[in-house]
TrEMBL record, chain A:
Cross-referenced Pfam families: Oxidored_q2 (PF00420)
Enzyme type, top EC level: translocase
UniProt organism field: Candidatus Kutchimonas denitrificans
UniProt cross-references to HAMAP family, sorted A to Z: NDH1_NuoK
Reactions accelerated catalytically: a quinone + NADH + 5 H(+)(in) = a quinol + NAD(+) + 4 H(+)(out)
Name of the protein described by the UniProt record: NADH-quinone oxidoreductase subunit K
From TrEMBL, chain B:
Organism of provenance: Candidatus Kutchimonas denitrificans
Lineage per the UniProt record: Bacteria, Pseudomonadati, Gemmatimonadota, Gemmatimonadia, Candidatus Palauibacterales
EC number: 7.1.1.-
The name this protein goes by in its record: NADH-quinone oxidoreductase subunit J
Any one GO cellular component localisation term in the record: plasma membrane
Membrane topology: Multi-pass membrane protein
Enzyme type, top EC level: translocase
Presence of keyword Cell membrane: yes
GO MF annotation, one: quinone binding
Record keywords: Cell membrane, Membrane, NAD, Quinone, Transmembrane, Transmembrane helix
Keyword Lipid biosynthesis applies: no
Primary location: membrane
Database matches in Pfam families: Oxidored_q3
Family note: Belongs to the complex I subunit 6 family.
Catalytic reaction equation(s): a quinone + NADH + 5 H(+)(in) = a quinol + NAD(+) + 4 H(+)(out)
Length: 97, 170
């Protein structure tokens, strides 16, 4: 089951990465990033059957960082929405050519 | 195929299908709902892989806290009825699909080197000796105490940063 879980984790990571590239809605791009972090957690937990419980502790830290990142990122999105009245990344062209 | 494997494949299929639906729905509220389904399926797989405490943590932290935050922001910004298409066109789909296939092939190649089931299971005896929660908590607070402290500081910084960034300018 470990190998299947690793393959599933790769598949979910790929879907998350494709979602970040395909979507232009900043909030949905954020959700895709959460999905990618979760796929990495899944691979850690699959590997923890061989390497012991310390792999699961990394998952706890990844979850904490994901929560902090979600809070700050959503605050940034709210702040951007106040400026542009939109969350579409096509409108954010200050640093683009 | 025994019952555990059947549950694994059902949960895996559910996770893949709902995450595919998540990246293709126009309405961000639907995307959030499908992400919750995917996260619950991943929590099921955590249980099957022997990580009971982390499965509970996954449901509480992701489905309970992070997704509520996402839905709250979607409602606050009033995006629930915004059907302006934000998905890239046909060329973009072909390009991103090709990139995704390349990435998945790379990950599959990396999985070939993984030990698989043959390496034996060290986790089940550990949890049977220590208990499911204490087996996680004891090494966490003994071997990784410094990391736990730093993580606490990180959460404080994130909280203060979120408040400062989202504050309305006076």
């Amino acid at each position: 089951m470990v190998t299947e879980a690793l393959i599933l984790s790769g598949l979910l990571f790929t879907i998350g990465a494709a979602g970040v590239l395909i979507r232009r809605n900043a909030i949905v791009m954020f959700m895709c990033i959460e999905l990618m972090l979760n796929a990495v957690n899944l691979s850690f937990i699959a590997i923890s059957r061989q390497v012991g419980v310390s792999a699961q502790l990394f998952v706890i830290f990844v979850m904490t960082v994901a929560a902090a990142e979600a809070a700050v990122g959503l605050a940034i999105i709210i702040s951007i929405f106040r400026h542009y009245s939109s969350v579409d990344v096509r409108n954010f062209r200050l640093l683009r050519w | 195929m025994d019952f555990t494997q059947l549950i694994f494949y059902v949960a895996a299929g559910l996770a893949v299908v709902s995450s595919l639906l998540m990246i293709t729905r126009k309405n961000p509220v639907f995307s959030a709902m499908f992400l919750i389904v995917a996260l619950f399926s991943i929590a099921t797989i955590f249980v099957l892989l022997g990580a009971h405490f982390l499965a509970a943590l996954q449901v509480i932290v992701y489905a309970g806290a992070i997704m509520v935050l996402f839905l709250f922001v979607i409602m606050l910004l009033n995006l629930g009825h915004d059907f302006e298409p934000d998905i890239r066109g046909r060329l973009g789909w072909a390009f991103m699909g090709g990139l995704g296939l390349v990435l998945f092939a790379e990950i599959l190649t990396a999985v070939q080197g993984a030990p698989g089931d043959a390496g034996g299971d060290v986790l089940t005896p550990w949890f049977e000796a220590k208990g499911v929660v204490a087996g996680v908590a004891e090494p966490l607070f003994r071997d990784y105490a410094v990391a736990v402290e730093i993580t606490g500081v990180l959460l404080l910084v994130a909280m203060v940063g979120a408040v400062v960034i989202a504050r309305r300018e006076a």
